[in-house]
Design goal:
This protein is mostly beta strands and about 210 residues long. The protein has a domain at about 1-5 and about 40-185. The protein has helices spanning about 15-20, 125-135, 190-195, 205-210, and strands at about 1-5, 10, 30-35, 40-45, 60-65, 70-75, 80, 90, 100-110, 115-120, 145-155, 165-180. Strands 1, 2, 3, 4, 5, 6, 7, 8, 9, 10, 11 and 12 form a 12-stranded mixed beta sheet that branches. A hairpin with a 2-residue loop joins β1 (about 1-5) and β2 (about 10). The chain is elongated and about 55 Å long.
Length: about 210
C-alpha cells in the first residue's frame, strides 16, 4: 500500500506502518473509525474484459476484495464514490500535475469489487491520453491503481486472520483512479527520473510516518 500526503508518496513495506501511524495496535481486533485524513493507493488487477464497450470504454475492475501483497483487503461494499462521480477523471500514474487522460463511467459495485468503464481521450486533442488507450487496447498496459481516503478499518482477530489478512478497509472514499505501468510502486524509478528511490526517503517522509505532518 502507498500513502500519499502533501504531494509525495511512500511505499509501505510493513503492513503495521499504517496502524502505527494511526496509533493502533495489531492486537486491537475489531472495527475502527479513522479520524486522520489519509490517502492510500492500492494496486488493481488486470482489466475485466479485452473487448471494447459500445461507449468506446475499456471495462475495468477498479478494486477487489482479494488479498493484496501487503496482506490487506478492500471491502467492495464500503466504497463511496459519490463525490468522485462529480469529476470522474482517469489519471496517468497518479500524476496530479498533468491533465487527465480520460474519464470513468458506469461505476458500480458487486460482491466481486468496484467496476466501471475507462474512456480515453480522443487523439485530436490529447495524443498522449489516446496513446495510453491504444496501449491498453493492445494489451501492453493492463493494470491500474485506486487512490482512496480511508474512513473505517477492521483489524481481524487471530482466527479471522489465519488466511493471511492483517487489515481490512471497511469504508473508503474513492478519490481517483490511474492507469499505471507498474501499479502501486511509484518508486521504481532512477534518481534522475524520480527524485529518490524507495531506499532514500526525504526527511518529510520520516516525519510523516512518525506522525508529524509538519
Amino acid at each position: 500500500m502507498v500513502m500519499r500526503n502533501k504531494g509525495g508518496e511512500f511505499v509501505m513495506r510493513d503492513p503495521s506502518a499504517l496502524l502505527d501511524f494511526l496509533g493502533l495496535k495489531k492486537e486491537a481486533a475489531g472495527p475502527h473509525r479513522v479520524a486522520e485524513d489519509v490517502e492510500l493507493i492500492a494496486a488493481v488487477p488486470i482489466r475485466v474484459k479485452d473487448r471494447e464497450e459500445e461507449s468506446g470504454g475499456a471495462a475495468w475492475t477498479f478494486s477487489t476484495f482479494d488479498l493484496d501483497r501487503f496482506s490487506e483487503r478492500i471491502d467492495p461494499a464500503g466504497w463511496d464514490y459519490a463525490n468522485y462521480l462529480k469529476n470522474p477523471v482517469v489519471e496517468w500514474a497518479h500524476r496530479y500535475d498533468i491533465p487527465a487522460i480520460g474519464k470513468a463511467d458506469n461505476l458500480f459495485t458487486d460482491e466481486d469489487g468496484l467496476h466501471g468503464l475507462v474512456v480515453f481521450n480522443d487523439k485530436d486533442y490529447d495524443p498522449f491520453g489516446w496513446a495510453i488507450g491504444e496501449r491498453v487496447r493492445r494489451g501492453v498496459i493492463r493494470a491500474g491503481s485506486v487512490g482512496f481516503r480511508i474512513l473505517e478499518i477492521e483489524i481481524p482477530s487471530k482466527e479471522d486472520g489465519k488466511d493471511g489478512t492483517s487489515l481490512i478497509f471497511r469504508k473508503q472514499e474513492l478519490l481517483e483512479f490511474s492507469i499505471c505501468n507498474v501499479p502501486a510502486n511509484p518508486f521504481s524509478l532512477t534518481k534522475e527520473a524520480g527524485n529518490q528511490t524507495h531506499n532514500e526517503l526525504s526527511p518529510f517522509w520520516g516525519n510523516f510516518i512518525g506522525g508529524n505532518n509538519g
